[in-house]
């Protein structure tokens, strides 16, 4: 029986390799590096599709210091946090790490050769299908302005109601931005932590956000222009700057990035953990963005798969698994040892969020 199994597996592997060899090699170079550390390649989407490559395939990727088998998908979120993916679209082929920087991890630079070979046709198709998220940009498709703008109060743990809010960007210039701006005004927001924009990119959207514009003119908005590598020195130094800005300015506070789910989700999770929230509360708040935008339902495989992003975030903070009831300690150690906040600054953050 063991011999039969071995022969079957061997034949299966050989067939898979033969099947993969029917696809031509894709070769190009890194054309540019994005703000988020993604490697944009010279390989076009049209050429990749014409060669038979599609989302859901597993490919052998070689570029700079990276070599390995990775999935092809349509978005960085098609893989777990920290994993590499080849993103294929009509615009082109790029290489990303979900919540990380491929540039940093691989040493890729403009001009680095890129080689992609088929490893297993459709080898990632089932998981790719589970991860697909669809939304519209029409207000009529959502139950409220708040859901459409992903705008909500953050009051997990001991955070007092009416102190902290999160949302999509009021200055992105898209269909959601005016709603986020009006909701910020209705909530009486006095200080904004803008995780996504530079001063210049923020200014481009101020015309559509009159309330936000008034806060910016008053010096009550900080622009941090963050990427999504939460443990890079660039991210942590900017986060320290943003949290110190919160400490020195008045509540209510609004934290936002572009969609209000990734960078804003992680910063909100950190603050919730620092203020005594349970892991269940943190996960529920993080996943509300996916419920708002994409209708992801609790109890589904899709919900569980996506929610692992937030637990992985805290495990990476700690360097190893830990009991969930210690999440506050893990967050405090990250704030002190990685972000660089002092004990007094951590205490001040807790005070302004829990005592008002």
Offer a quick outline of the entry.
With 356 residues, the protein is an alpha/beta fold. It has 14 helices and twelve strands.
What would you say this structure looks like, in words?
This protein has 356 residues and is an alpha/beta fold. The chain folds into two domains: 20-126, Bacterial fluorinating enzyme like (Elongation Factor Tu (Ef-tu), domain 3), CATH 2.40.30.90; 139-354, Protein-Tyrosine Phosphatase, Chain A (Alpha-Beta Complex), CATH 3.90.190. The chain is 43% helix and 17% strand. It has 14 helices and twelve strands. It has helices spanning 2-21, 45-50, 102-106, 125-131, 145-148, 177-186, 199-205, 210-217, 233-247, 263-274, 279-294, 301-318, 327-339, 343-354, and strands at 26-33, 39-41, 58-63, 66-73, 84-89, 92-97, 113-120, 152-153, 164-167, 191-194, 221-223, 253-256. The strands form two sheets. It has a seven-stranded mixed β-barrel with strand order 1-2-6-5-4-3-7. The chain has a five-stranded mixed beta sheet with strand order 8-9-12-10-11. A hairpin with a 5-residue loop joins strand 1 and strand 2 (39-41). Helix 10 (263-274) runs antiparallel to helix 11 and helix 10 (263-274) crosses helix 13 (327-339). The longest helix has 20 residues, at 2-21. The protein starts with a helix and ends with a helix.
